[in-house]
Amino acid sequence: MRMPLAMIMLTAAIAVSGCANKGLKVLQSPANGPDEFAVLPVKPLTAPTDYQFLPAPTPGASNLTDPTPQADAVEALGGRASALASNGIPSSDQALVTASSRYGVPADTRQVLAQEDADFRKRRGRFTQIRLFPVDRYEQVYRKHSIDPYAQAEAFRKRGYPTPSAPPEE
Predict the structure, then answer these.
(1) Are 74 and 92 spatial neighbours (Cβ–Cβ below 8 Å)?
(2) For the whole prediction, is pTM greater than 0.70?
(3) 44 Cβ contact partners less than 8 Å away, ≥ 6 residues apart
(4) For residues 150 and 166, is the Cβ–Cβ distance under 8 A?
(5) How far apart are CA 20 and CA 118, in angstroms?
(6) Residue 134: CA atoms inside 13 Å, Cβ hemisphere, count?
């Protein structure tokens, strides 16, 4: 009589321990090392052209060596960072922005999408909170919405489009 009761208790304990809701993506660090994303590389130091006329220090303001990732990305992609600083949209892209927002742009797009995604995940995974081993929840929930890269490459090849070679399927 003790053995079945012990088995029931052990099974219940394992089932309850797997009910933790850790979110959609479970990203666990393998060690307690430094966070490499907390370190930002700075721009290289440059010597001023004239040491007699140096700018006055401005506490709390940006520095010439401070990283500017958005401006650096715009310049790397062939744009002008000065247009980013002025109004955010370069004049050459104004027509694109106007065309893409012709039906209006709701202010709460991110909140609406987050709520719709949460509702979708809730509908798709009623009993998926119970798991004994760590699994990739993102892949499970969005499996039907994922694109098969090998099928897409094959479809493009059949239509005559040049496609790069893909690694072999596992």
Answers:
(1) no
(2) no
(3) 65
(4) yes
(5) 17
(6) 7
- At 1-58, the pLDDT tens digits run 577 888 888 887 777 666 655 555 555 656 677 777 777 778 888 888 888 888 888 8
Domain edges within the chain: 68-105, 106-159
φ and ψ at residue 31, rounded to 5 degrees? -150, 170
Give the C-alpha distances (Å, rounded to integers) separating 170 from 39, 138, 166, 167.
36, 20, 12, 9
Distance in angstroms (rounded) separating the CA atoms of residues 114 and 71: 28
27: helix, coil or strand?
coil
**Which of 84-93's residues contact partners 24+ apart within 8 Å by CB, and which partners?**
none
